[in-house]
Amino acid sequence: MPGLLTLAYLIGSITFIVGLKMLSNPATARKGNLIAAGGMFIAIIGTIFLYEEGGERLHNYGWIFGGLFIGSVVGVLAAKKVKMTAMPEMVSLFNGMGGACAMLISIVEFDHLANGHTTINIGEFIKSAIGQATATGDFNIAESFGNPVGKYLIILLGLIIGTVSFAGSMIAWGKLNGKVKDFSFNGQHIVNLAVLAAIVIASAWLLYDVHQQFNSGEGGWTSYPPNTVLPDIQIQQLRETGLINALFYGILALSVVYGVMFVMPIGGADMPVVISLLNSFTGVAAACGGFLYDNPVMLTGGILVGSAGTILTILMCKAMNRSLKNVLIGSFGAHAAAGGGGVKEQGNYKEINIADAAVVMRYASKVMIVPGYGLAVAQAQHVCHELEKLLEEKGVEVNYAIHPVAGRMPGHMNVLLAEADVPYEKLEEMETANAAMANTDVVLVLGANDVVNPAAKNDPASPIYGMPILEVELAKMVIVNKRSMKPGYAGIENELFFQPKTSMLFGDAKSVLQQLVAEVKTL
């Protein structure tokens, strides 16, 4: 049976890797998702029916399958009912649940370790993972520290990272749905750093205390072979002091505070980056759970999520011209939220009506569409694809320019357009699209704002200064569809709207696109 469980974990790990690889291409993404989900199902069933500890298998099947049933029903209903505009909120909510799971695992395992008997089996995992075991199998991570500090360290890492991810994701969820407003105060960076330092100091103190207590026990304690039950007298020492418990739950409280403080000031176009970062935190926290339970498939999944999220965060930071350090101390977007570089007088703008816009696009040689959050709000992706096909039937080349942080989460626009079956080949990344702007006759901006704001290049006082943008102003003509002249998510004026080559086409994106389709059909 252990052999079958190992095989189940191996299948799960391989399917995660294959699924992630297939997710990189829209043509195979759906199949990749199903393959990874299938691997997860095999790993879960294998754990439930094949896992053994001390010769005993899991029990409480009623609780286990009850929880699986409730979670599955909630997940399926949420996925079916969620609107595309609410997708970033759902991602944040689910990400927060992952962080909460890692946090609860650490709390349960800490209580198990500090207040009852436990086994030390992490050495077995490391033995198999890095090949440092001896032939007798007496390798023990605790030996490296003189006591089981290693297991406490992993519990603390899972607690801190999982809690920060949970608290931060809940704030991000509230900000995305408008229930939580941006908040910052003078010196918040220093407070954030102080809280972070307090977490590190308390963690070091806890680990040192664990080390001291185990080594001062009767007969001393130096190391144990894998799967050793700790002596009662040593467990009792921890129970009597209460210091470790106080430190542990103090770290938990500080992590909640840091997660909240870290995300509260973030606003504007920075939210996609923070969501990506929180997602990577959840992956790392899950990997800590894999270490704790000696579970390779949990470890593999956590590492894949954590590393993929980290790489994506770094790439998005580069796309935003931000530093990862600023993200980590919560200064990201704070000055934007505070209103720096806000509204200033720009002059007059001019409007264009539906008929004229249709004529301009119909007789253009090349049209570039820039999708934004307004397109998602209007649920206009399908009619946008219809307009694109109609123009191409009339000989117009049409492509989409995708900014890496367009929308409210990483890849938001890619998912939105994929839902409407827009060919992936038509989606151009920012660098490619910018290179083609000078040869583009018409750019149609649909509900995007901050990602096309020239202030990012021209105004050093702007909160988004330095952020790479889609340089739509280089095209021969720009048509901007918005509901009104209100500033975008970052709360700053867009000088693009007042430039001579720009014309404003006001109205709901779906309604405007439907009217454009009707007009183009007559031309």
From TrEMBL:
Membrane-spanning parts: 6-23, 32-51, 63-79, 91-108, 152-173, 185-208, 246-266, 273-293, 299-317
Highest taxon in the source lineage: Bacteria
The UniProt entry, under SUPFAM superfamilies, shows:
DHS-like NAD/FAD-binding domain (SSF52467)
Q: Membrane topology per the record?
A: Multi-pass membrane protein
- Indicate where this protein is primarily found: membrane
Q: Name one Pfam family in it.
A: PNTB
Top EC group: translocase
Q: Which residues form the NADP transhydrogenase beta-like domain?
A: 6-518
- List the subcellular locations: Membrane
Q: Which reaction does this enzyme catalyse, per its entry?
A: NAD(+) + NADPH + H(+)(in) = NADH + NADP(+) + H(+)(out)
Keywords noted in UniProt: Membrane, NAD, NADP, Translocase, Transmembrane, Transmembrane helix
The EC number(s) this enzyme carries: 7.1.1.1
Name of the protein described by the UniProt record:
proton-translocating NAD(P)(+) transhydrogenase
Q: Which organism is it from?
A: Chitinophaga pollutisoli
